[in-house]
Amino acid sequence: MRLSAIVEKLPGVVTRLGADATIGGICADSRRAEPGDLFVAIPGTEVDGHRFIGEAVSAGAVAVVGERVPERIHGCPGDGFSYVQVKDARKAWGWCSAAWEGFPSRDLTLIGVTGTDGKTTTVSLIQAVLEAGGVTAGLVSTVKARLPSAESMEGDWTEVETGLHTTTPGPDAIQDYLAQMVGGGATHAVLEVTSHGLAQQRIAGCDFDVAVITNITHEHLDYHGSLEAYQQAKASLFAGLSGSFRKPGVPKLSILNRDDDSFRYLRQYEADRQITYSMKQAADVTARDIRFDEDRTRFHLCTTEGRTAVETPLVGAYNVANILAAASAGVGLGVPLEAVARGITAVSGVPGRMERIDEGQRFLAIVDFAHTPNALREALTAARQMAEDHRLIVVFGSAGLRDREKRRLMGQIAGDLADTVILTAEDPRTESLRTIMEESAGAAETRGKRRGVDLFLIPDRGRAILRACQIARSGDVVIACGKGHEQSMCFGRTEYPWDERTAMRLALNGETLDTLPTARASKRR
Asked: Does residue 337 sit in the same domain as residue 240?
């Protein structure tokens, strides 16, 4: 592909110097640059990609996209390599990636799901609803991507993991996934869109048709700086609907939660149709006669297209809200109501989301991804219903170098809702783990918890989960929150292997998962 064919698609081009080079690939990491590549130099918070232009060119890159004026670029822009100056290099990377793949989102009905909590579950529900309605739909979440299988017969699809931690993949990966979906015959795709992914322009070049919100609560203020900035990042998915590429016969839909404060400001963004859902008030899609059981939820799904009974193995009020969001998307895209109900029932669970671990124990053991104050409250509320008259024991922590206010809020919530609180590690990074745990412990103490009685600080997460299982009695509920599906935990700047579900299984059998540095420290003591 010629450089000019890419540049003509880029927004915010300031100037271009040099030959119309033939491009063999696109990268934003100089260490991965190969001969013929276009290198995108992205200024970051810690590392500025412009510093590595020389390395990329030495490795064979024939063109560079960056934000600096040519005079400030080391080397020979326009002579030794072609140079394109843009206003926003992050956005340019997304558009370059989309152009390279032929703008695959324009051949798909593209649904984006954003929010603080419930995104992964809602994405899975929407994909299942579409499939039940006879639609071939791909999926990209922070857990997995559903893609055409390259090794199986035509029409087969497979699932691949998308990463260790919760974030939207880079634009090169997203566009590659979308292109694979188009090549596999998909007509729809569902994307989980995080606030980081929006703020960092990872979905630039994606033309969305449906924007879905779960909720917007206290999270990621360390990165965004304020709740308003966080809200603005989420809102950008909705703001971009009206200006995105128009596909024949595909409406632009906005799916809004009337029970969430986000409804107040998201309703202002234009769409062909706004569909509202609610558990508490009048809306286009609602739930009536809700019945919560230990292992399933039943209710009547009421929509503008009619009413139908729904039964799902997903538990908790927050999952009813996720289901309503997914049903709203299905209704808006013309999926028959009966198919919507079938799709909802088909989703038995999402890895690491209220996932039960059964090793024959006499109490209920659950692993959940709840890592925000609101998610922890919802998870513990659901677990409390399961425990009935028995005890609820929670194991959780708070991440280092992230929003510190969460530590106090989560400590208070756990202190209010759980009978026993065990604080432990959750990606402390370069912060003091002891300091993090103390902040949550102090908050739990304000709710009446007592150290050594119903409040424990155990730095090693494997031992913390083991302790919870050791003190559990018949009928109790043990829930480990914060890691869910993730496969690593960060201490310092190193990612150590960690699997919460394996840790719970080992603990139920009297053993510990000893992959973290805290495990070695515990053994030395």
From this structure: yes
The greatest distance separating any two alpha carbons of the chain, rounded to the nearest whole angstrom, comes to 76
What is the DSSP-derived secondary structure letter of residue 20?
Answer: -
Decide: 33 and 42 in contact? Cβ < 8 Å: no
Residues 93 and 111 reside in one and the same domain: no
Pairing of strands 455-457, 420-423: parallel
Asked whether the beta carbons of 112 and 252 are under 8 A apart, the reply is no
Taking all residues of the chain, what is their mean pLDDT, rounded to a whole number?
Answer: 93
- Please give the backbone phi and psi of residue 98, each rounded to the nearest 5 degrees, phi first: -65, -45
- Please check the confidence at residue 166 and state whether its pLDDT lies above 60: no
Residue 138 in domain: yes
Same domain, 264 and 407: no
If one counts the domains in the chain, the total is 3
DSSP 435-486: HHHHHHHHHHHTTT--BTTTEEE-SSHHHHHHHHHHH--TT-EEEEES-TT-
| pTM beyond 0.90, yes or no | no
Whether 361 and 506 share a structural domain: yes
CATH of the domain at 51: 3.40.1390.10
Q: Which helix (H) or strand (E) holds 491?
A: strand 488-491
Tell me if 522 is assigned to some domain.
no
Q: Domain span at residue 435? A: 355-516
Q: Of the candidates 98, 125, 141, which is a domain's last residue?
A: 98
Helices of type H across 104-192? 119-132, 171-183
- Of 88, 114, 109, nearest to 204 by C-alpha is 88
Crossing angle for the helix pair 433-445 and 405-417, to the nearest 10 degrees:
50
Same domain, 221 and 246: yes
Tell me how many degrees the CA angle 427-433-438 measures, rounded to the nearest 5: 125
**SS3 state at 173:** helix
At which residue do the structure tokens 């990463």 appear?
A: 163
**pLDDT tens per residue, range 335-367:** 999 999 999 999 998 889 999 999 999 999 999
| More confident site: 428 or 523 | 428
In a domain, 524, yes or no: no
Beta-strand ranges (E) seen in 92-234 are 109-114, 137-140, 144-148, 157-161, 188-192, 210-213
Sequence length of the chain is: 525
Considering the domain boundaries, does residue 390 fall inside one? yes
pLDDT in tens, 140-150: 998 889 999 87
